[in-house]
Amino acid sequence: MKTIGNLIWLVFGGFVIAMEYFMSSILMMLSIIGIPFGLQTLKMGILALWPFGSRVVTSEDSSGCLNTIMNVIWILCGGFWIAVTHIILGVLLCITIIGIPFGKQHFKFIKLAFFPFGKQIVDA
């Protein structure tokens, strides 16, 4: 069931949002300062391609001020626009009955789009 859900997810916005994450990852990695941001968005892009069967948990070392600072920088550099894309795709998908589960998945991604640092992706 996870495989079918993931394949349908790719059609209903998963591929678009993953490409957005990958493009922002490449742009961030152009500078040395942006490499940690690029690596984190690369992880989020992989999760956006295949979200069903994975979950996001708070990592053990997430209680530092460095994660907070990096999350604030991320929001200013690209997280806001990716979150807006999640909102738009989520609303469009929730208009149809079939798209409601995928719209809800986009709404779950909004929190991750704003605060990716201090999070870890694990298999469910």
Would you mind describing this structure in some detail?
- This protein has four helices and two strands; from the N terminus they run ααβααβ.
- With 124 residues, it is mainly alpha-helical.
- It has helices at 2-28, 35-49, 65-94, 100-114; strands spanning 54-58, 119-123.
- The chain has one domain (2-123).
- It is globular, with a radius of gyration of 14 Å.
- A two-stranded antiparallel ribbon has the order 1-2.
- It is 70% helix and 8% strand.
- The mean pLDDT is 85.
Order of helices and strands: HHEHHE
* Parts with pLDDT < 50 across at least 5 consecutive residues: none
Number of domains: 1
Helix content: over 70%
Distance between the termini: 13 Å
Number of helices: 4
Radius of gyration: 14 Å
Keywords: Membrane, Transmembrane, Transmembrane helix
InterPro entries: Inner_membrane_protein, UCP028777, YccF
Fold blueprint:
Blueprint lengths: L1 H27 L6 H15 L4 E5 L6 H30 L5 H15 L4 E5 L1
Antiparallel strand pairs: 1-2
Q: What structural keywords apply?
A:
single chain; 124 residues; mainly alpha; two-stranded antiparallel sheet; 4 helices; 8% strand; globular; membrane; Inner_membrane_protein
What is the structure about, briefly put?
The protein is mostly helical.
